[in-house]
Amino acid sequence: MNRYKICLVLLAAAVCFYSCKKDKKPTVITPPPITYPDYTVLKPGNYWIYQDYRLDSINGAAHPLGTFDSNYVEKDTVINGSTFHKYCDVAFASGTSTYNIYYLRVSLSYMINSSGEILFSSEDFTDIFKLYTYGPNAATPDTLTVTEQMGFKDVAITVDAGTFITSAFRQIYHYPASYPFGPTREYDHRYCQNVGLISETTGIYNSQPSLYERRLLRYHLN
How far is the C-alpha of 154 from the C-alpha of 167, rounded, in Å? Predict the structure, then answer.
């Protein structure tokens, strides 16, 4: 009889242990959110001042044009339920004054505009973001192909405001073989982490080999 009671006690303990083990909920570990480096610094009140240059096609020498541009973030606004930053670009490159407004936001590692086009990525140096064609026309009798992608990852460049480690959003123009200034020409927009746009190509002309560029002179970040 005692042996029978002992077996019952052991059986009850085993059932209780199994029941407790079954009811115990697994621990759910929530991974921390992924954060990406900020290369655009789109905060209202931030501004950047640039000096305009013409780049010599032979030796790369930069010749100041005596004109200055500015970019600034005016305010935030909501478009289709998402917050965008109103980014104003005042340019005087090559003697032509322009005032452009863009609505930009950062989504994961990408900076996009209000049309969803990618204008920069801190991580994606593999994909071609956009491909389109021009022509034929008088200047380019054959089709001109343009690709937009990232390049020149973590390259140091020196401008008036100092030396910065930058990565570039590139608009690469692929010319036909008959073009006299090489198979490709590029608009490069170089950004530095926690600073913003450091330099960018502002002008390429089919009739001349020189490039035009703006370079950061000074900036203010809130």
Answer: 5
Residue 10 domain-assigned? no
Q: Quick one: which of 133, 139, 134 has its CA closest to 208? A: 139
pLDDT, position 203: 87
Domain span at residue 195 reads 47-220
In a domain, 103, yes or no: yes
Is 107 within 8 Å of 118 (Cβ atoms)?
no
Q: Structural domain tally of the chain?
A: 1
Contacts of 211 (CB under 8 A, 6+ apart): 54, 55, 57, 185, 201, 203, 204
> Which phi and psi angles does 71 have, rounded to 5°?
-120, 145
Instruction: Say if 66 falls within a structural domain.
Output: yes
CA pair distance 196, 220, nearest whole angstrom: 10
> Is 119 contained in some domain?
yes
Block mean pLDDT (10 aa), the chain, length 222:
49 49 64 88 97 83 91 95 95 69 96 97 97 69 84 97 98 86 91 98 84 96 95
Q: Which two tokens stand for residue 70?
A: 């500015």
DSSP 8-state assignment for residue 165: E
Nearest alpha-carbon partner for 64 in 94, 24, 27, 30: 94
3-state helix, strand, coil in the chain (%, to 5): 10, 55, 35
Query: What's the pLDDT at 17?
Result: 46
